[in-house]
Amino acid sequence: MDRVKGRVVIVTGGAHGIGHTTCMLLAKEGAYVAVTDVLDEEGQKTVEAIKSASGTAQFWHLDVSKEREVENVFAAVVSRFGKIDILVNNAGIAGADKPTHEVTEKEWDSVIGVNVISPEMFEFLPAALVPEILERIKSHARKRMDELVRETSFNGVPHEDFLEQGEIWETLKESAARHSIDVIALGTHGRRGLRSC
Questions:
Q1: How far apart are CA 113 and CA 66, in angstroms?
Q2: What is the mean pLDDT of the chain?
Q3: Based on the structure, what is the number of domains in the chain?
Q4: If we measure between CA atoms, which residue out of 71, 58, 61 comes closest to residue 9?
Q5: What's the CA gap between 132 and 138, in Å, rounded?
Q6: According to the model, what pLDDT value does residue 35 have?
Q7: Average pLDDT estimate for 91-111
Q8: DSSP per position, 65-112
């Protein structure tokens, strides 16, 4: 319980199926859930189910293939909850249930827009729309780096030896993972101290 307590989570395609179940579980674990989908009625029912279980959620209509809608919804979520911590990019469609040669251009474009283009769009939009996330990450990284350098200095361990042992890498990697950073590159800064990138 409470594994994501206080975290703000956007779930795309959250109205039914895996998305609905994901929203319910996240709310149960203490998250503030932004339920998004093109299915307004089902999306509202997901929110009502969360609220009836004493969770916190709000629904936004969102077509993930439309960049402007994505931008507006992200901004609205930040306005409502103050931040965004997690994105569950769950939205996906199977497309028209008909033989391939009968699929229209509009139907094909819809599948490509949701399943192919939107995941690439989401890869870049969150950082651009929610700069405070990056600032929190940088602040945490700077603080942890200062702590580690002080620890090595107090213990009389040369910074270069500490780096070569891999201990600082593992520590920062674990810390970064908690803040959704995929990679931290480290290198010696001259012969004294460390530099994080």
A1: 8
A2: 76
A3: 2
A4: 58
A5: 10
A6: 98
A7: 88
A8: T-HHHHHHHHHHHHHHHS---EEE--------SS-GGG--HHHHHHHH
Q: How far apart are the first and last CA of the chain?
A: 34
Query: Against a cut of 0.90, is the pTM above it?
Result: no
Residues 97, 13, single domain; the answer is: yes
| Distance separating alpha carbons of residues 79 and 81, to the nearest angstrom | 6
Q: Give the structural domain span for 153.
A: 134-196
CATH number for the domain spanning 104: value is: 3.40.50.720
Helix (H) or strand (E) holding 139: helix 131-154
Q: Can you tell me the distance from the alpha carbon of 186 to that of 127, in angstroms, rounded to the nearest whole number?
A: 22
Tell me, what's the pLDDT at 41?
A: 98
pLDDT (tens digit per residue) in 49-81: 999 999 999 999 999 988 889 888 988 998 999
d(CA 8, CA 46): 16
> Given a cut of 50, is residue 37 above it in pLDDT?
yes
